[in-house]
Amino acid sequence: MSARLLLIGPPGAGKGTQAQRLSAALAVPAISTGDIFRAHLRDETPLGKQAKAFMDAGDNVPDSLTNDLVRDRLSQADAADGFLLDGYPRTIDQVRALDELLAESGHAMDAVVELVADPDVVVERLKKRALEQGRADDDEAVVRHRLEVYAQQTAALIGVYAERGLLAKVDGIGEIAEVTERIEAALAARGILFTA
Fold first, then answer.
1. Catalytic residue among 52, 96, 129, 144
2. Which of 49, 128, 135, 164 is an active site residue?
3. Are 183 and 113 in contact (CB under 8 A)?
4. Is 125 annotated in the active site?
């Protein structure tokens, strides 16, 4: 079973955890742009060196370079039958680039899962994580700002995928296994069945 999926949700909604579970259950790689950047930087590839120049200057990596990095990752053999993207696309231009990339091989996105979480619950979850892991970036004011930025950045993406009938909103609050079951049910309703 092939599946080309996007997992989106606010910071603290459990995307990373769910991405790993879904990846295993669907037998497709979970691909995050953060992991892609780190791999290229570590291996000092030409794309990695370009990205490093922007990052060292404190600038965002431009869409064109991000698109090239994702194109390179999706061209690898393990992604031939599907993938689960986390952190890409983030802009409408990136949506267009992803559409074009998939169309080149006769494919399109199969579904977009949006993990929905009440901001107050997310703040409490991240404050707990900050205590457990000593993370300064999980301070309440910082978290609330990150949630606002997320909402502003993703509203247009969510709109595009909702118009295409690809969006599945799933409650991201609850036990990990419960959330996974909700995602499985939402995907099964779209004909995407789990192998495990």
1. 129
2. 135
3. yes
4. no
